[in-house]
Design a protein that fits this description.
The protein is of the alpha+beta class. It has a three-stranded antiparallel beta sheet with strand order 4-3-5.
């Protein structure tokens, strides 16, 4: 019997491939709202990030999340995501 395949995703901050369960999903909902998706099942465009503030800062500096979602992300959204990341860690 073959081993079960483990889903891999790339962190938008550090650009490393990691197991999906080690990452947090950030989603842009069909209504245009950007938020943390703890379940990994919300509808919308998703991007993955490590559970560290460093990766969020890298993604913010490089504009990776803005490119992924095709829109400019306001500072208050980054602040909200950062506080939610603190509660996850």
């Amino acid at each position: 019997m073959s081993a079960k395949k483990i889903p891999m995703r790339m962190c938008t901050g550090c650009r490393e491939m990691k197991q999906k369960r080690e990452l947090i999903r950030i989603v842009k909902t069909p209504e245009g709202e950007i938020k943390l998706d703890r379940t990994g099942k919300l509808n919308g465009r998703g991007a993955y990030i490590c559970k560290s503030e460093e990766c969020l800062k890298k993604a913010r500096k490089s504009g990776a999340l803005a490119r992924t979602f095709g829109m400019e992300i306001p500072d208050e959204i980054y602040g909200k995501i950062e506080t939610e990341l603190d509660s996850v860690e």
